[in-house]
Amino acid sequence: MITSITIALLIFISMAIAIKTIQMRSKLRIPYGHDNNRTLMAYTSAHNNFITYAPLMVIALYVIETLIVIPMAFTLTLGLAIVISRLLHAYALMVKETASKPNFSWRVKAMGLTFIILTSEALICLILPFKIYFQS
């Protein structure tokens, strides 16, 4: 249940990023690539990064939710953290880094949260199956 809600929210975020990128391409009249335009580079980077990390985090969330006995509150927190990390990263690239004075600290925070989530998910997926196996 938590995974499906997380996926639905991530789909909406992905669509919003894609629409904003398409709008920027149209505004700049750059149909392909980025033509060395820093704003378009930031928008396409936001979309590429989202498409790279979101599926990996959701797959791990699904494994944790369905195969590993873990409190629902933790799984819910993990799903919420995934959505927040992807929103923050897109915001960092599309708003903060395209401003007249780029601010990279938002991007660093978003990627930090992403790596904390991925590391947590990896450790849970590695450790808990062994714990469950050796307890039986």
Description:
- With 136 residues, the protein is mainly α.
- It has one domain: Membrane associated eicosanoid/glutathione metabolism-like domain (Four Helix Bundle (Hemerythrin (Met), subunit A)), CATH 1.20.120.550.
- The chain is built from four helices and no strands.
The CATH superfamily title: Membrane associated eicosanoid/glutathione metabolism-like domain
Helix/strand/pairing category: mainly alpha
Strand content: under 5%
End-to-end Cα distance: 27 Å
Properties at a glance:
about 140 residues; mainly alpha; Four Helix Bundle (Hemerythrin (Met), subunit A); 4 helices
In short:
With 136 residues, this protein is mostly helical.
How are the secondary structure elements laid out?
Layout: H1 2-28, H2 38-67, H3 72-96, H4 105-135
